[in-house]
Amino acid sequence: MLSARKAVHQLQEYHPPLARREGLRLDFNENTDGCSPRVLARLKEITAEDLARYPERGPVETIVAEHLGLAPEQVLLTNGVDEAIHLLCEAYLEPKDEALVVTPTFSMFEIYTAATGALVTRVQCDSDFRFPIATLLKSITPATRLIAIASPNNPTGTVATRGQILQIANAAPDAALLVDEAYVEFHGETVIFDVQALPNLFVSRTFSKVYGLAGLRIGILAGPVEQMPMVRRVSSPYSVNAVALAVLPAALSDHAHLLSYVSQVRNGRERLQKELHRLGIHCWPSRANFLLLKVGQRHREFVAAMRQRGILVRNRSADPGCDGCVRITIGTSEQTDRLIATLREVALELKLGSEVTA
Asked: Which of 253, 280, 313 is the last residue of a domain?
């Protein structure tokens, strides 16, 4: 009888709660304002002939590389960050190899790693979700072949410094070090230029967040010139669809649209932090487009009460070390006004925080 590999049988499926997402979408860290008008204009220009052809990503990779300040051979466009993770696992992991994953974090790191049959070792963040540099360095062994780090991290919003990343890369020369910079535009610091000097560093990015292209599934994997041909060997030449490739240059060209949205999110992040402090609800400092809140035992009621008022937020209580936590995406200035007003209502109704329970 046909049976899937043992590693696949043992995988825990990831089921994002995408059903009935009606209302203000502050649950998946998406762009809440939409893509650039230039993207919509380019979509209208796509013809039937364009869709009948197999997609060619090489010319667009050259545009993206120039935008990033990298060589074209250092950049691979992928079907979202998910494919970038999958390709690294396929290229570098053998069964019984070891991968280190800093948790809590993006679930697909562990899923794609475990699917190869490799051993996943979780390295839990330090207190207050600080990056666990000392523990991570101690966890590196001769069997370590992949280290996955998100910076800024999801769901915590915390970061690993460039110095820490370089330290890890040098401490594990036989391992592929993946730094996922999905939220880099809200942070402002990157290690993507270090792929030119470090032979084992890879950086992934996405156009799903700040660029508002989550529905088109397109991302980037950048890496050392000598390693990228190996990654391309396990990649399909047609994994990025023609529509995404057609509109990406338009999205990159509208710098003003990006800056406006990033500015609103950063301002909203600061406003929301201050409001939560006033309400006595703990949150962790974030460099991304979201905040992680410590709601406590009533976290499910909190999520439900926000939904009843038309605002979707994400329960992250099941993540390692996140018991009682809820993550809230930050959107435009007007959306932040609505969010803060609703938070005040819900906090009062559920008697959350020191301010409302005093």
From this structure: 253
